[in-house]
Structure formats: C-alpha cells, structure tokens
Amino acid sequence: MVTLVLTTLVVWRLKTGRLGRAMQAVRDNELAAGTCGINVFATKVIAFGLSAVVGGIGGGFFAGGFQYISPDQFTFGESIVLLTMALLGGVQSPFGSLVGTLVLVILPEWLRFLKEVYLAVYGAAVILIMVFLPDGLWGLMLERTRLRAKPIAGDVPKLPLLTQTGAETQEVVLGVQGLAKHFGGIKALDGIDLAVRRGTVHALIGPNGSGKSTFINVITGLYRPTAGRVMLAGQDITHATPHQRNRAGLARSFQNIRVFRGMTVLENVMVGAERPGNDVAENPALVVERALAALDFVGLRPDAHREVGALSYGHQRYVEIARALAATPHTLLLDEPAAGLNLTEKHELGELLRRLKGHGLTILIIDHDMKLVEQVADHITVLNFGRRIADGLPQMVLKHPDVIAAYLGEPQNVAA
Ligand code: ADP
Ligand code: MG
Fold this sequence. Notes:
Elements: H1 2-16, H2 18-28, H3 30-35, H4 40-66, H5 76-89, H6 94-110, H7 118-132, H8 136-148, E1 172-183, E2 186-197, E3 201-205, H9 212-219, E4 227-232, E5 235-236, H10 242-247, E6 250-253, H11 265-273, H12 284-298, H13 313-326, E7 331-335, H14 343-358, E8 362-366, H15 370-376, E9 379-384, E10 387-392, H16 394-399, H17 401-408
Parallel strand pairs: 3-8, 3-9, 6-7, 7-8
Antiparallel strand pairs: 1-2, 1-4, 4-5, 9-10
Helix pairs in contact: 1-2, 2-4, 5-6, 5-8, 6-8, 11-12, 11-13, 12-13
C-alpha cells in the first residue's frame, strides 16, 4: 500500500510538472514539441525509463508475493485487462488507473451471482463505459469540477514578455545562403539567399507550392537542407536540431495549426515559457505568469483554463503565437497566420504584428493576403518554383514584372 501511494503521488506530480508537460507535448504533437525547445528523443527515453521503473517495482512485488513466476502467467488476455483498467479509469490521471483497477477487480466479484452470464454482463458494461466515457471515470469527475473552475481574475502580470528589445538595425539576424531542399526530383528550394535584419518585418510571398513552408521548415530544423547555410545571430545553425534552434531564439507558428490538444490553453503556452534556458524556466510561478502575459498580449487571457480544442480556429492560431512568444524569442517565423481568419480577426492580426514589431521582435511572415503584407512588411522576398525572383522594398517588389507574372500566371512580357 505504501508503495502504491508513493508511486501514485510521484506519477501525479509528474503530470503537473515541467517534465510531464513535455511528455504530453511530445504525445500530442511531436513536431511542435521540438520547435518549442523540447528534446523529443530525450523525453521519450525518459518516459520509457520511468515506465520501466514502475513496471519493475510491480514485477518485484508480484514475484515476491507469488514466489513463482512463469511466462504463461502473462498472457495476451492479461495485457488487455491492464489496458482496459487504464482506459476505463481514464489515462489522463494516475487516479484514473486506480479507479479503473478497483472497478475491474470488484465488478467481476459482484457479478458472480449471475453465474454463466456474468462475463457477458461484465464485457457489455466495459464497452458501454468506453463508448460513453472516452476520458474514463476519472475524466468524468474532472469534467464536473472543471465546469465549476472560476476564470482567472486580477491584474495583468507585470512580467515582461520580451527580454530582447532592440531598435531596427542593419544587423542580419537570420542569414541564409544558397539554401536548397530537394524531395527526390522536386526542387522545393533551389539556392535561396535571404537576409532578415533585426527589428524588421520581412515578408516571404509567392504562389502556392513555391517553397515558402519548406523554407521555414528547413530554417527551423524540421527538414535537413540539401545544400546551403543558415546563420542565426552570427551562429551557424545549419545542422542544429529544432529544440537547439528554439533555445537560440527562434520561434515559429505552423501553417496547419499544431497545438497540444490534450492540454488547456494555459498549459500550451507554459510549454513555450519553460523551454530550457528561458529566463523564467526554473521557477514554476514565473512560468505561469509569463504564460498569462503572453496570453494577455494576444487577448486570450480569459480563455486560459479552457481546453485548447474548444477555441475557434483563429484563436488556436493565437495560442500558437502566444506559445512562441512565451519563449522570449528574438526572431519569430509565422507561416500564413492569416489563413482561415475572418476579416475582423485579420484586422486584429495586423494590429498584433505591429505591436510585436514595436517591441523590437524580428518577424519573418508568410502570407497570401497582399493587403496585410503591404501594411506590415518592411522588406519582401518573392519565391517562385523554389527560386528567389525578387527581393527588396515593398513598393519596388510588388511592381516587379516577374512578380506580377508569377501571381497572374502569365508569361513575362519584355518590359517597355
Ligand atoms: P508553399 O508553402 O509555398 O505553398 P511548400 O513549401 O509547401 O509550398 O511546397 C513546395 C513544393 O515542395 C511543393 O511542390 C510541394 O509539393 C513540395 N513538398 C513540400 N513538402 C514536401 C515533402 N515533405 N515531400 C515531398 N514534396 C514536398
Ligand atoms: Mg505553405
């Protein structure tokens, strides 16, 4: 009993802590977890190791208690029963496993008076619970209490959201030379040069399939480049992992939203705030404060305790941006942040970008909305078929005949 209580406490504490949140982030979205500074491989190894420890303790007691073990005590059916116990109780919490185990040990005993049909009744009860309670019995209890949870009131936290403030300078924060990415015969990127200067909003535009998302994926380390070099604030990051790049000050949002679905809005943003090396990472109270400050910045503070999946598409985007901001990056990459937003939301986004820029953050933004791009961009680079076809100040680039041709899909005329 003592071991049971201790193990339950440890596992329970794990879930609400930094390591537990990292594990859930890896479970919910591996790619996003890496770009939030989590070492995905190490987290998986730790999860496997901890599970093995708990299993080992159980096995030790089992062998000691029975004084005899043989492989045929551990049948396939036994695995199913264990899994059913966890699912029935709810995998969200170790208490769920306790509840599930209790029910599945006691239920067959209670039903024994039914003699022959008891197994069928037992099976039907399990199926019904699984169909109608996907989060298990413990999930049902949690849902009841969460409905009663009060929204956060009080002052806006004073913790600064951005530690790196800096005026626009000529310094190149993100420098890319000869970057290429080939997928078999497809040259998604074919020798791209690009220089993003500190404190500017740099827009990357181009028709669908021109290589914009691939560019960001290579920059953030999700894809290995076929050729070329990437420099971040004077540091060569061409071969760095996604979490190393995040720790070096690079954060991003995704074209297809990648939030951690099993967590609340606040927990999502906390994962960003507690990236290793962040100023608040070692202090749980400050992590919450930083996360709330980031949510406040994007206007989602009242939704902090909601499940992230319950938010609208546009607001889930903002959660991603807040998660990126909470890590206090100096450079933010946004892949089509306006996609799927309605007009009001697009207007809010433009406002948000201007405020971010006011803080001295460097932003590389991909978008199709020319109005938005014209409003916020200091510099525009245009891609077409994986090649850079124009680069410069917005007024010049948007009038460039090659750019007009690429967007209208017409052959380029000889300029008069
Ligand atoms: P954009 O974001 O500009 O619309 P992408 O960067 O998504 O374009 O894609 C550029 C090209 O690379 C497209 O032809 C696309 O089909 C191809 N591509 C992108 N990712 C992959 C992949 N993982 N495997 C194969 N081809 C890919
Ligand atoms: Mg794209």
